[in-house]
Design a protein that fits this description.
Radius of gyration: 19 Å
Strand content: 15-25%
Structural class: alpha/beta
Order of helices and strands: EEEEHEHEHEHEHHHEHEHEHH
Length: 327
């Protein structure tokens, strides 16, 4: 049994009020494109809007269940907060309607209006209570606000109270003007922003304030597992880190990590440093930067069958408890 906790899906909305934010259009050659905010964004992969295509490709990849979250380019934190709130509610409602017929296959993480913390808390509680969503996917910064900012404390408090799984996914990435060429905003910008977010959470004391948080890091934590030794050095010699109760490396095991690295040696390094109990399967489906053979990636690791089973399903069971209806 294998569960993928990092796969993307955008429900198609019948409500024309939101057509300007996200729609699919077709050119004269029958090529389909994603249009965002009235502008062509990218060619469309059918898996982004089709659960049937998801299931077809899941079977091919050896995945039994998938946790769905929207593609981060439709977070829309940059809109007025009332517009983001309306958008999030409509998307979450449709996500629930789409997956409820496939309850043996799909689970969901809500998208939230994080530019209004009060509304984000209400929407997280609503979707977990009414729809049995597992938590939420949020960006690695909230349109420029870092995740350790005190203004977000009410959100972290609510997430802890609800036992929500919060998947951090980069979108509003750092150094965007330096990463415009060569698809670098995704290739190195995404893991960089995940690293910044995780480090801010550690150094900003979020885990001390909310010790029971369940925070997942996309793309195997970005560069965090590699950078933590430098953080530990800073802890020893820099007064700016002296407020921490222990070395930054001791916080590695507070996060959860998906398995997306594209390299067995790198993934083995992550597993060895964060522990098997913090690892989860991830694919980033359906994008071209996805992991196409997630099961093989785990099979190649130097761990026993018990450890592989932990990564495939048991860790997810521990996180999601009774919300996960798998044997």
């Amino acid at each position: 049994m294998v569960i993928d906790i990092h796969g993307h899906y955008i429900p198609l909305l019948g409500n024309s009020d939101f057509k300007s934010l996200f729609c699919i259009e077709e050119d004269c050659g029958n090529t389909r494109y994603i249009r965002l905010n009235g502008n062509v964004f990218a060619k469309m992969d059918e898996g982004l809007v089709s659960l049937e295509k998801h299931m077809e490709d899941m079977d091919r990849a050896g995945i039994d269940h998938r946790v769905l979250s929207v593609a981060p380019f439709v977070f829309y934190y940059e809109l007025e907060s009332n517009e983001t709130t309306k958008w999030a509610k409509v998307v979450n409602d449709q996500m629930y309607r789409d997956i409820r017929s496939y309850s043996d296959k799909f689970y969901a993480l809500a998208t939230l209006p994080m530019n209004s913390v009060d509304e984000a808390c209400r929407e997280l509680e609503r979707t977990m209570g009414e729809y049995n969503f597992l938590g939420a996917e949020i960006a690695t910064n909230i349109n420029g606000i870092e995740l350790d900012d005190r203004c977000l404390y009410p959100f972290w408090e609510k997430a802890e109270e609800l036992g929500a799984f919060i998947l951090l996914h980069p979108h509003y990435t750092a150094a965007r003007d330096r990463l415009t060429d060569f698809h670098l905003r995704n290739i190195i910008g995404n893991p960089l922003d995940t690293t910044i977010a995780a480090v801010r959470i550690i150094l900003g004391g979020v885990f001390q304030k909310f010790p029971k948080l369940k925070i997942g890091l996309s793309h195997s934590g970005g560069y965090l597992p590699l950078a933590v030794s430098r953080l530990d050095k800073g802890y020893k010699v820099r007064r700016e880190l002296s407020h921490l109760p222990s070395a930054p490396s001791t916080f590695l095991k507070k996060f959860y990590y998906d398995s997306i690295t594209f390299d067995t040696k790198v993934l083995q390094f992550v597993v060895d440093n964060v522990s098997i109990d913090r690892m989860l399967i991830g694919t980033d489906y359906p994008f071209d930067m996805r992991c196409e053979e997630p099961v093989r990636a785990i099979e190649m690791l130097d761990i026993d069958e018990w450890g592989k089973k932990r990564i495939y399903i048991d860790n997810a069971k521990n996180i999601f408890k009774s919300r996960l209806k798998v044997r």
